[in-house]
Write a structure and sequence with these properties.
Elements (H helix, E strand, L loop, with lengths): L2 H24 L3 H16 L1 E9 L5 E9 L4 E4 L11 E2 L12 H8 L3 E3 L11 H10 L6 E7 L5 E11 L6 E2 L3 H45 L6 H17 L13 H13 L7
Antiparallel strand pairs: 1-2, 1-7, 2-3, 2-4, 5-6, 6-7, 7-8
Helix pairs in contact: 1-5, 2-5, 6-7
């Protein structure tokens, strides 16, 4: 490969990372963010199997968010609408010791990337689950890459697991190269920061709504004549908005609201009496 070709490949990779970074920062739907992360991981490695785990709030388990295997035409979680019914993975045993037998649990507990060339030859990790799956399905788990998602504070929020990198020219399973690993680690970092930011925004929004409702409830409690008024107005306002949107004749037949506009109306309805506090 010539120097010019290497520079072109590097330029393309940087461009893709910029594009995925922008997409992750502007997307509001968590499931879509999950899909963006895993789709880009596939683009980087051409991995046949992909699983995304997210760590629970208590830090004791990991929930399956996305599972996909292209060669088996299998996909669950994310935006598929198909629920993953596999129980969460335990990160600790009954005595509170970190689970290091599973590579994804190991990555979650240590923050280290694990790159396996052949699951059937690797020692030190338990691949019983993968081998049992292979036995019943006819699949062959070979190369495995487990990458933790670390946010800007170096907190681990989840793990990406990729299975069987495929050579695009021969169609054969290959190992995950060091270059692939570094790119996925960079992607995982971007994804973790985006997910953390979205969660923080959601928490701030919940706090804001709770504060507004607290003020409105205090106003309702103050007057026995209008008790419950501040709580009823938002409900009625949204009912009116729904009714107007369903109108198919007259001057409001083309009226519609985006999700952001509906949220603005909802907040405005809660705030309508808050000026009385002054």
């Amino acid at each position: 490969m010539t120097l010019k070709e290497k520079c072109a490949i590097l330029e393309d990779r940087v461009k893709r990372l910029q594009e995925i970074g922008l997409a992750l920062s502007t997307e509001d739907d968590i499931n879509v963010i999950f899909e963006l992360i895993m789709e880009e991981a596939k683009n980087i490695t051409n991995a046949d199997g992909r699983t995304l785990y997210m760590i629970s709030d208590d830090g004791k388990t990991m929930k399956f968010e996305i599972m996909a295997t292209d060669s088996m035409n299998f996909a669950q979680g994310g935006t598929t609408g198909v629920e993953i019914k596999i129980p969460p993975m335990q990160l600790f045993d009954e005595e509170g010791n970190p689970n290091h037998s599973s590579i994804v649990a190991y990555s979650a507990n240590t923050g280290k990337t694990v790159n396996i060339k052949d699951a059937y030859k690797e020692e030190g990790f338990d691949f019983t689950g993968a081998k049992n799956f292979d036995k019943t399905s006819g699949y062959r788990t070979t190369s495995v890459l487990s990458v933790p998602l670390k946010n800007h504070e170096n907190d681990i929020v989840g793990v990406i697991q990729l299975i069987n990198a495929i050579d695009s020219k021969t169609g054969k399973t290959i190992t995950f190269s060091d270059d692939m690993q570094q790119q996925v680690e960079s992607l995982a970092s971007q994804g973790a920061v985006a997910l953390t930011n979205k969660r923080l925004v959601a928490e701030l929004k919940n706090l804001f709504e709770s504060f507004i409702k607290l003020i409105a409830t205090a106003i309702d409690k103050k007057s026995p004549y209008t008790g419950g008024h501040c709580e009823r107005v938002p409900e009625i306002a949204m009912m009116l908005a729904d009714a107007v949107e369903k109108t198919d004749s007259g001057k409001y037949k083309d009226f519609s609201m985006t999700e952001d506009e509906r949220y603005e109306l909802f907040i405005a309805a809660w705030l309508h009496d808050c000026g009385k506090v002054a």
